[in-house]
Amino acid sequence: MTQRSDRPSKRTGTKLHPIAETLQAANTGVAQAVVNRILDLVRTGMLRSGDRLPSERELIEILNISRPSLREAIRALSTLGVVDSRHGGGAYITSLDARTLLAPLDFFLSLTPSNLADVFESRRIIEIEIARKAAVNAGDADVEALNGMLVAHENVLADPVGFRILDAQFHGRLWQMSGNTVLDRIAYGLYNMGLDVRRRATEDIALIRRSLGEHKRIVRAIADHDAVGAAEAMSAHLDHIEESTRAMIESDVAALSRISALRR
Question: What is the C-alpha to C-alpha distance for residues 130 and 186, in angstroms, rounded to an integer?
Fold first, then answer.
């Protein structure tokens, strides 16, 4: 990173002082630090939807970083949906709905043996409540859509890829039916954790068949507007998912241990 002097920027006018005070920091972390600081400004309300960020030249002075690092940070913020970069028109804070604000969850969380229990505890807290709300909110169109997915699921019992697509659609429909965009987004982020492990676990045809049975029980309870039954069915489903995920991770760890032993 290009080092710059610590003298105050001549281009930082009174209007930019609050942003400058919050953004200025030690010259470490570069693009990631800029992303975190912009997110902090949004969370605290210093930057709001529709606000135009200072020009690139001003931001370089405020942040005391190089142009490539700044552009990398702006690209990352655009990917997260926090900043909308307009060609020739600067960068603006987006509408910042729940889906946008919680987007970093999808990028920064990953499944590990040490956090597996915490991840599934979190999924239970979120998705069991979603199942309850889905049972309360379900309309005829929702039930029809879920039943259609079950029929399609019957046709892909020997197709792991087809199952994974349908499974994502099934859970996604439930999240939407909760009527809560924050629960929807958190559930999406947690679902995406460890998909590489889940992808291998779902190569097991027996697991696919078992999941279909569990999905049917969830849909049956939702169709009956049975919130308690839907919650219990979802809880059993998540128990099964955690069990198969844990088995796959333990298998991976054992395989790595064997390889390590052979290399000694």
Answer: 11
Whether residue 264 has pLDDT greater than 80: no
Whole-number average pLDDT of the chain: 80
Q: Which residues are CB-contacts of 235 (< 8 A; sequence separation ≥ 6)?
A: 124, 128
Rounded to whole angstroms, the Cα distance separating 95 from 8 reads 32
The model's pLDDT over 130-167, given as tens digits with 9 standing for 90+, comes to: 999 999 999 999 999 999 999 999 988 888 888 988 99
Q: What is the pLDDT of residues 200-219, one digit of tens each?
A: 888 899 999 999 999 999 99
Looking at residue 177, what is its pLDDT? Answer: 96
Tokens standing for 120? 């599934």
Convert the pLDDT of each residue in 214-248 to its tens digit. Answer: 999 999 999 999 999 999 999 999 999 999 988 88
* SS3 assignment for the chain: CCCCCCCCCCCCCHHHHHHHHHHCCCCCCHHHHHHHHHHHHHHHCCCCCCCECCCHHHHHHHHCCCHHHHHHHHHHHHHCCCEEEECCCEEEECCCCHHHHCCHHHHHCCCCCCCHHHHHHHHHHHHHHHHHHHHHHCCHHHHHHHHHHHHHHHCCCCCHHHHHHHHHHHHHHHHHHCCCHHHHHHHHHHHHCCHHHHHHHCCCHHHHHHHHHHHHHHHHHHHCCCHHHHHHHHHHHHHHHHHHHHHHHHHHHHHHHHHHHHHC
Question: Using CA of residue 179, residue 184, residue 186, residue 187, what is the dihedral sign?
Answer: positive
